[in-house]
Amino acid sequence: MTVVRHAAVAGQFYPADAERLAAGVRALIDDAGAPQGPAPKALIVPHAGYQYSGTVAAVAYARLRAHRERYRRVALLGPCHYVGVRGLAFSGADVFRTPLGDVPLSRPPAVVLQHPATSLTEATHGPEHSLEVQLPFLQSVLDDFVLTPIVVGQTPAASVADVLEQLWDGPETLIVVSTDLSHYQDYAHAREHDSATCAAIEELAPERISSDDACGAFALNGLLTLARRKRLEVRTLDLRNSGDTAGSRERVVGYGAWMLIEPAEDKA
């Protein structure tokens, strides 16, 4: 029997109708252009409703289109908003379902599940939107791929980095970290705050990023820790907030998009 994790926020964060969703995501990615350049090893993307952060996320996902046949596996990490966990929580489902179809899951290697920071915790995956909202983008820009979804709670950056290293594999594997930035400041203060976080990301400085700076800080800092070990290059693709995309400028949420490139790719 196939175990399905059904969409929890279709009709809320993004359209529930498949045709409308496909057209909307395609329009967002088309508006982002068709950038060429090296293939990303990792992306950092926001996870709000598409009317708020979809344009920012699309700037990152558009970078995959020229390399869509390359990627066969996606490790997707994001924070927990509903059911709290400590460590890295994997899913025991067989597929994650969206209006665009089913995404098959790849079981993590035994060595990963033996790590003391990991667990199989289905309850945290069921309602979680930080991972789900990325799937229609991935389904739109990649060919067939398998997914390793990970909800990340309070965890030392080194532990997240160690687990990610076990999932790193070769060029066929893409890492995606889902995070928004500052929350509910006025527009001017949010821009200043998020610019400092952006600088820390660009400089691979996880010690300068806390959960006040990024709601996905635990996953983000693990990625940055490993990126520093592997000497990856970070490129900022976009940095905005909800005052730029939708809503008032009195209380905004920050969004950013970054790509990380392995040294060999940057010379390709």
Task: Describe the structure concisely.
The chain is of the alpha/beta class and 268 residues long.
Keywords:
single chain; 268 residues; alpha/beta; Protocatechuate 4,5-dioxygenase, Chain B; 9-stranded mixed beta sheet; 3-stranded mixed beta sheet; 11 helices; 23% strand; globular
Structural features, described:
- The chain has helices at 18-31, 50-61, 110-113, 122-125, 129-132, 135-141, 157-167, 187-202, 217-230, 242-245, 263-266, and strands at 4-5, 42-45, 73-79, 88-90, 95-98, 101-104, 118-120, 146-152, 173-178, 183-185, 233-241, 252-261.
- With 268 residues, the protein is α/β, with parallel strands linked by helices.
- It has a single domain (24-113, 129-266), classed as LigB-like (Protocatechuate 4,5-dioxygenase, Chain B, 3-Layer(aba) Sandwich).
- The strands form two sheets. Strands 2, 3, 4, 7, 8, 9, 10, 11 and 12 form a nine-stranded mixed β-sheet that branches. A three-stranded mixed β-sheet has the order 1-5-6, with helices on one face.
- Helix 1 (18-31) packs across helix 2 and helix 7 (157-167) crosses helix 9.
- The radius of gyration is 17 Å and the shape is globular.
- 48% of the residues are buried.
